[in-house]
Write a structure and sequence with these properties.
20 strands, alpha+beta, 337 residues, Uridine Diphospho-n-acetylenolpyruvylglucosamine Reductase, domain 3, 26% helix, Uridine Diphospho-n-acetylenolpyruvylglucosamine Reductase, domain 1, 9 helices, four-stranded mixed sheet, Uridine Diphospho-n-acetylenolpyruvylglucosamine Reductase, domain 2
Length: 337
């Protein structure tokens, strides 16, 4: 099987932030057999490999050395159905939002709260994507991947993926495990999850709730708050919601009684967007980049921005939040190289 490497490939349209970036080489991976072949080829030429999904969680530099391999492995396979659940094995290259919508059309439930999240299915376990009270790890049965270190095909049960808040085994070992398929166990009977306040308010007096209605509500809420990457470059939430210990939370709460907070394993989770708003940066612009006017958690590229432009803005946001609240924000998208 031949590998068609395209030299000096423009990645501007291949990352959701729309940052100006050029890959030394680019290839679209459409068959899993290409993966070990490409790894061997890259090793022989001493070239690094960046495995790319939808490019929605990346901050790319002006030039990307080595090979950018975009995983476009297709396919949705129904493995089994029971009266309670359906087991679906999905190619890493499937577009996440389209897959979520398809599951609802087939009567499979559980992913509706994760509607409209940009990116591919293969990227979903890496970041352990989550929104509106649901994390994808709750629905994952297993993850198939190629281990570039041991040169073996592996299948990880959900409990072996080391899932955490926006974290996983795959994220902590960048480039090692190349995800090819994700298997989901979805529900045949719908059990709505409406802990997120706007969803709870939307369906407060409704006795019968349809999953498709929740899907549409999530889409409306996200659209009202978050810009479309196809029209305004952004990577969604640029910062994680920080978790502070109980003592720090109580000190902050005494000073800011209305500070939004949520339970977390090791303390209390704060709303990064609220913290950024309080330092007066929502809607702030700095040349070609800025903080979105409706959602302070989102940094945007107004056109022609570089990674340096974005990183300077991110540092300003982090510094001002740290100065006012003593809370360190952590960037969510991955910087490469």
């Amino acid at each position: 099987m031949s590998l068609e490497l395209k030299p000096q490939f423009d990645l501007t349209a291949f990352n959701a932030l729309g940052l100006r970036s050029v890959a030394e080489f680019y290839i679209a991976i459409t068959e899993s057999d290409q993966i070990p072949q490409l790894i061997r080829c890259a090793a022989e030429q001493n070239l690094p490999v960046l495995w790319l999904g939808g490019g929605s969680n990346l901050v790319l530099g002006k030039s990307v050395p080595g090979i950018v391999a975009q995983l476009k492995l297709p396919g949705v396979e129904l493995l089994e159905t029971t009266t309670d659940s359906a087991l679906l094995r999905v190619g890493a290259g499937e577009v996440w939002h389209y897959f979520v919508r398809w599951t609802l059309e087939q009567g499979y439930h559980g992913l509706e709260n994760l509607a409209l999240i940009p990116g591919s299915v293969g990227a979903s376990p890496v970041q352990n994507i989550g929104a509106y009270g649901v994390e994808v790890c709750e629905l994952i049965e297993c993850v198939d991947a190629y281990d570039s270190l041991s040169q073996q095909w592996l299948s990880f049960a959900a409990e072996d993926c080391q899932f955490g808040y926006r974290d996983s085994l795959f994220k902590r070992n960048p480039g090692r495990f190349v995800i090819t398929r994700v298997t989901f166990r979805l529900n045949r009977e719908y059990h709505p999850k409406l802990s997120y306040a706007p969803l709870a308010q939307r369906f407060d007096h409704q006795t019968e709730i349809d999953a498709l209605e929740v899907f549409e509500a999530v889409c409306q809420i996200r659209t009202s708050k978050l810009p479309d990457p196809s029209t305004l470059g952004n990577a969604g939430s640029f910062f994680k919601n920080p978790v502070v210990n109980q003592a720090q939370f109580e000190a902050l709460h005494s000073q800011y009684p209305d500070i939004p907070n949520y339970p977390a394993d090791s303390g209390r989770k704060l709303a990064a967007g609220w913290l950024i708003e309080q330092v007066g940066l929502r809607g702030y612009t700095d040349g070609r980049v800025g903080v979105h006017r409706l959602q302070a958690l989102v940094l945007v590229n107004y056109g022609g921005a570089s990674r340096c432009d974005l990183e300077a803005l991110a540092e300003r946001v982090k510094a001002q939040v740290l100065q006012k609240f003593g809370v360190q924000l952590e960037q969510e998208p991955i910087a490469y190289p």
